[in-house]
Amino acid sequence: MSHTRLRCGKGSKTVKLRQIITAGSALALAALAAGCSSSSPSSSSSSSTSAPVTSSNSASSASSLQAALGGAANYGAMESLYDKAVAAGQKSVVIYGPSAGTDTALYTAFKKSFPDITVTGVPVVGPPMTAKLSAEMSSGKHVDDIAYTGSTDMLAYITSGWFTPFKPSTLPPASALAAESYGPGDNFFGFTVGLSGMLYNTGSVQASQVPTTWTGLLNPQWKNKLVMYDPTAIGEMDDIFAHLALVPGDAGMMTGLKAQNPELSPSSDITGPLTAVAQGSKSLGIGVPYAFYLVAKAQGAPVAFYLLNDDNYTVTLYGGIVRGAPDPLAAELYEDWMYTPQAAAAIASEGEYSTVLADQGPPGMPRLSAVKVFPYIPLSGIPAADGAAITQAQHVYG
Question: Which CATH number do you get for residue 177?
Fold first, then answer.
């Protein structure tokens, strides 16, 4: 995981803001470093009561768990699985992924319902994550239980035979989830959806001035004032361009933005555009994750977030149980839990969406099913679409 540089203040406030942005990022890192599926209706969360339970099958225990999970279906099966995992000594779940290790709200909420099991995130993404998993597969010395990242890497892991197929008992039908949430062969399923939009500096730009369409970014007033992720490498901006190619009116955006001379932030610098806008060196950032904005705004950054009138960008992260997982029962329980109202509430508190359409979104955002997003690219077509966008971007921006 890259270190970030967010400087919009002075002294200790600068350091604090930089540290929180680094630790608080969640969804979009997979898009920036691994390539992900996107643009599907989704949303998350409702508030829920988190009452801890013990590993017993008593009626009172079952009632407590049902309350903790917001009345989620199959809570009895989850309690039974919890008992089996604890009895087997499986009291840990290790998750590898781009936002793993920063999902503290999720891990805390899970432990309130299942206090004998601790979830630990290992922040790793892209080639380093693949290398760690490959080494464990080769040596037979397994550490990771769940792989949690974007579609490109997850599809590659299927090809390598690195998953144990598992379908969560709480999983809604595909029609009740964000599009493309079902991975091939029950190897993985969509856990969370992140929403990216436009960010502007409130000290230099008025709300009435901001462009509300993609082509509005090509207005001469924005020349030399834009910042976006570098589209010549795997990351969010190349995926955005892959989706823009599906919209006839926006097909010329790649060359059009080049003429605007935007600052290109390395795709590995996950808060680069946010940093530039917060500092005031650029007026408007393209494709900034809402979760990043929430953290920065809470720390006093002079920024505002907004969505376009149409064709907004989303990115899905997927979870799958790794073959040879040391704690498979505990891992199954965690995946079951990810589709409960309690999990959705924790996801929303971090500025993201559950893939369950019936849930609400993060604070300040509508349900994702109400947001006008890009046409989605079928899961199996994303690697080729993103690859084509990178090739074109290397020609245009190289």
Answer: 3.40.190.10
Element (H, E) at 285: strand 284-289
Q: What is the pTM of this model?
A: 0.81
Q: Strand pairing partners for 190?
A: 318
What tokens appear for 385 in the block?
């679409």
- Domain limits for position 255: 11-39+194-314+374-397
Q: Which helix (H) or strand (E) holds 21?
A: helix 11-24
Tokens of 334: 């965690």
Residues in Cβ contact with 27 at an 8 Å cutoff, skipping those fewer than 6 apart: 99, 192, 193, 194, 289, 291, 315, 317, 351, 352
Alpha carbon 292 to its chain's center: 11
* DSSP symbols for 298-345: HTT-SEEEE--SS-BEEEEEEEEEBTT-S-HHHHHHHHHHTTSHHHHH
The string of pLDDT tens digits covering residues 320-332 is 999 999 999 999 9
Confidence at residue 250, expressed as pLDDT on a 0 to 100 scale: 92
- Angle (deg, nearest 10), helices 11-24 and 290-298: 150
Given a contact cutoff of 8 angstroms between Cβ atoms, the answer to whether 153 and 34 are in contact is: yes
Those residues whose C-beta lies under 8 Å from the C-beta of residue 124, and which sit 6 or more positions away, are: 1, 96, 97, 98, 100, 132
